[in-house]
Design a protein that fits this description.
The chain is mainly alpha-helical. It contains 5 helices and 2 strands; from the N terminus they run ββααααα. Helix 1 crosses helix 2.
């Protein structure tokens, strides 16, 4: 049974626990972005603004990073949002649909 410390939720947006972060580190993750890709921590609504500090503290505690060496997570917003209307219409080519709607204003 995991300890209370391991069940601690580090990323509230994606519900990633400390145990999952530690597993990712033990599997070879060495940066915030690698942890993000492996666990989804930092991919939620806050884009890591809440959990990245905690993750960097865990990386330091595990001896992976020296103090202050953590680089911020990369924030990746969608290139272009797609409306539910485009999805509902079953548009074969969403880019074409978006271009058509931009011309119409």
């Amino acid at each position: 049974m995991p300890s209370k410390d391991e069940t601690l939720v580090i990323c509230r947006c994606e519900e990633v626990t400390k145990a999952e972060i530690l597993d990712a580190i033990h599997d070879g993750c060495r940066t915030l972005d690698e942890i993000k890709r492996m666990t989804r921590a930092g991919m939620g609504l806050c884009q890591g603004r809440t959990c990245s500090y905690l993750i960097s503290q865990i990386l330091q505690h595990e001896g992976v990073l020296s103090e202050g060496a953590a680089t911020p997570m990369k924030v990746r917003f969608p290139l272009r949002p797609v409306t539910l209307e485009a999805i509902a219409l079953g548009a074969e080519n969403v880019t074409e649909w978006l271009a058509m709607n931009e011309r119409e204003g």
